[in-house]
Amino acid sequence: MTLFFENARLIDPATGTETPGNLLVRDGLIAATGITEAPEGAEVIDCAGRCLAPGIVDIGVKIGEPGERHKESFRSAGRAAAAGGVTTVVARPDTLPAIDTPELLEFTTKRAAEAAVRILHMAALTKGRQGREMTEIGFLQDAGAVAFTDADAVATDARVLSRAYTYARARGALVIGHPQDPGLSHGAAVTAGKFAALRGLPGVSPMAERMGLERDLALVEMTGVRYHADQITSAASLPALERAKAAGLKVTAGVSVHHLTLNEIDVGEYRTFFKLTPPLRAESDRMAAVQAVADGLIDVICSMHTPADEESKRLPYEQAAAGAVGLETLLPAALRLVHAGALSLAQLFRALSLNPARLLGLPQGRLEEGAPADLVLFDPDAPFVLDRFALQSKSKNTPFDGARMQGKVLATFVAGVQVYTSNNQ
Question: Could you say which EC number(s) this protein's record lists (predicted)?
Answer without folding.
Answer: 3.5.2.3
